[in-house]
Amino acid sequence: MAIDRLIGILAILLREEKATAAQLAARLEVNQRTIYRDMDRLCRAGIPLRSDRGRNGGISIMEGYSMERTLLTEADRGAILAGLRSLDSVSGTGYYRRLMEKLPQAEAGTADDCVSIDLSSWYGPLLAPRLETLKGACLRRAPVRFTYCAPSGDSLRVVEPVRLVFRWSSWYLYGWCRERRDWRLFKLTRMLDLEVLEETFPLRPFPTPITPVQRIYPEALQAVIRFDPAARWRIIDEYGAESFTREADGSLLFRRGFPDREELFRWVLSFQELAELLEPEDLRRELAERLQKIYGKYDR
Fold first, then answer.
1. Residue span of the structural domain in which 194 resides
2. Last residue in a domain, options 215, 244, 259
3. Which of 82, 93, 86 is nearest to 135 (CA)?
4. Whole-number Å distance between alpha carbons of 82 and 136
5. Are 192 and 147 in contact (CB under 8 A)?
6. Given pLDDT bands bounded at 50, 70 and 90, which one contains residue 290?
């Protein structure tokens, strides 16, 4: 759209002060003739542009002309407001609400009204102060110490925090673990006795993207599970409609990799009588033995 292109030209000139028509055309993916027409439109709108010839020439905004250096459309403002509201949903300080008040409000019915992102959780009263504490540690480059609860047991960790990450519907701390001597993601709700240390640390170069999902949830074993059709909604909700096939008897056949047997068992058992683990055969037998032990407790 022409208006977006005009805003793009102004944004470039405000940021870089001068650019040639050829540079503007390349960056906005139009020809130079279109750039010259846009310059004429901007001048008619009251924005004084000048074009200098020669080796150091180019298009610039005339000196002494003052204008707002932040050019945002209604949709731009709406997107920013939606993002700020999402951060305020987990912040206990009201900082982002106050920041929103400084921005020009978008018109009713624009993007800020159409999009609502809530990053809070059931652990809201616990999560908000923990997020603020860890954010401060990241900014100060101060190590944090905490007890971390994991399936393998509790462990004391000292971590050099660099970023807070919202992934897989949960908040994580990304940092260098001094005990494991590697980059790790730590789920905030599993942290106990969080403490910020007085020392500081030099920032290490960290990999990008941050810890791919395959490292956190490696598919170490492949499982085949048969589901009752009543479980279809949940399988679609968690893994998508392409994750299973429908059998002739109406049952659903699901194939997927899991990090370990405990993760597999927890997930299968959460479906109760609606799921049956078919493969691997040795894990099917082990699950049957566990169920017998559970039954034995209740049979008494």
1. 124-215
2. 215
3. 93
4. 23
5. yes
6. very high
For residues 211 and 177, the answer to whether their CB atoms sit within 8 Å is no
Instruction: Return the H-helix or E-strand segment holding 256.
Output: strand 252-258
Nearest to 212 by CA among 183, 240, 187, 191: 183
How far apart are the C-alpha atoms of 288 and 300, rounded to whole Å? 19
How confident is the model over 143-177, as pLDDT tens digits?
Answer: 999 999 987 889 999 999 999 888 767 889 999 99
Residue 240 lies in a domain: yes
Cis peptide before 207 (omega within 30 of 0): no
| The two structure tokens encoding residue 161 | 């925090």
Provide the domain count of the chain: 4
Strand pairing report for 144-150 and 153-167: antiparallel
Where is 128: in which H helix or E strand? helix 124-140
Residues 266, 275 contacting (CB under 8 angstroms) = no
Q: Is residue 140 located within the same domain as residue 211?
A: yes
List all residues 6 or more positions away from 223 whose beta carbon is below 8 Å from its beta carbon.
Answer: 255, 256, 257, 258, 264, 277, 279, 280, 283
In three-state secondary structure terms, 115 is coil
Query: How far apart, in whole angstroms, are the C-alpha atoms of residue 274 and residue 252?
Result: 10
pTM for the predicted model, two decimal places? 0.57
163 with 100, same domain? no
Q: What is the pLDDT of residues 54-92, one digit of tens each?
A: 777 889 888 766 655 555 666 666 666 666 666 666 665
Boundary residue ending a domain (215, 236, 252): 215
